[in-house]
Amino acid sequence: MALAAAFDLETNQFDVQNAFPHADLDETVYCECPHGFEISGKCLLLKKALYGLRRAPRLWQKKFTARLIELRLRQISEEPCFFVNDYIFLLFFTDDTVTLSRLENRERALAFKKSLMESFDIVGGHIRGWDPMNVDGFPDGASDCGRQCASAVF
Fold first, then answer.
1. Quick one: which H or E segment has residue 148?
2. Who is most buried in 70, 86, 124, 154, counting CB within 10 A?
3. Domains, the chain, with CATH or none
4. Handedness of CA 105, 110, 116, 121 (dihedral sign)
């Protein structure tokens, strides 16, 4: 949020619905049939990553990263979940994503989001409760907005 305030950037947040099943498995995985659907002597062959599968978060990160690179974003080597290009900053954690862009790049940022929506089920929009004009106290303290954001996160 400090970047958004310092450079007068528009902020957007979105969530990828059911992110892990978008990721393809990189190995053969079998599981027991769900309770109520058991068939004696049978198990299931998974075709997609599922929540609870130990490798699912890493497989999702690889899938999402690959798509961002296809959309011509450059991954920052020091922070694998931070991507940039000439009009947008993108940060993600699991299935939650934040984008920052200048107002004059709004159309390009919307086109970028539309391209992502072609691959993933995305919901979200402008970050609510965030007023870049209300960020003060750097570096001595946080504004009311900063305290609200911090309390929501922590």
1. helix 144-153
2. 124
3. 2-20+56-153 (3.30.70.270)
4. positive
